[in-house]
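Most newcomers find our protein records easier to grasp once they have seen one. There is nothing in a record beyond a sequence line and a structure line. Getting from the letters to the tokens is the skill we practise here. An example says more than a description, so a record of this kind follows:
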Amino acid sequence: MGSRKKCHTSWEKVQLARHPQRPYTLDYLRILSNDFIELHGDRRFADDEAIITGLATIGGQPFVVIGHQKGKNTKDNLIRNFGMAHPEGYRKALRIMKLAEKFDLPILIFIDTPGAYPGIGAEERGQAEAIARNLFEMSVLATPVIAIVIGEGGSGGALGIGVADKILMLEDSIYSVISPEGCAAILWKDQSAAQSAAKALKITAKDLFGLGIIDEIIPEPFEGAQSDYGVMAKRVEKTVLKNLKELNSIPKEQLVQNRYEKFRKMGVFKENKKKTVRKFKERKR
């Protein structure tokens, strides 16, 4: 299908994850659900259109849906703030998550953002607090939570709605603590080193699956998700319903405990103590 070779390098994955024709949250919902009802506002300040929330039936299963939303053109991107949420977006998401918990509905999350919006207004209204509050509250939600990285998973902007029982990634998506350009600017003082940074950051689905950060990779069509929305949506639906069936078999108290342990294990590594002591002694000499 087409002439594109299946991309292998981390930088190629970055470019594909940012492809302007890649399907976004609303694209998936238009295909997967014919009864999506959008819910607006954080009940404190405003409605943030960089984050979509609502109710939808997918494969006969009712869900509460939350997701970042980028624009399809310049005008739409200005409205959606390029998928970079303000604090009211995260507070809106939390309000809807609590609604899901109250009515015993599973939560499906679509992650696709360069990061949370770092503007002065967002900081004044408590951007860091809003994200931190979501991390805490999501860790104890007594309902199944499934998150899918469908494009970019950028830093706290992604994690603010990303504490889930199951974390899935599309094959050509990325998930990272910082963008390759940002990492290159900090470590090498040169944004042109972004390709090297992308490789070092281990941001691809394959890398993160190997590290135990994500639970499953959803294959994309040969030319990427943007080449066939329908095929990609059906693969997402099949994977989501399979994972939900597994989560539904777990008692709620155990579900919350498993989620807590899942995130506590991330970043843990073992060190060869004998080798470390030997190196320390050699340095002292």
The CA atoms of residues 113 and 284 lie 47 Å apart.
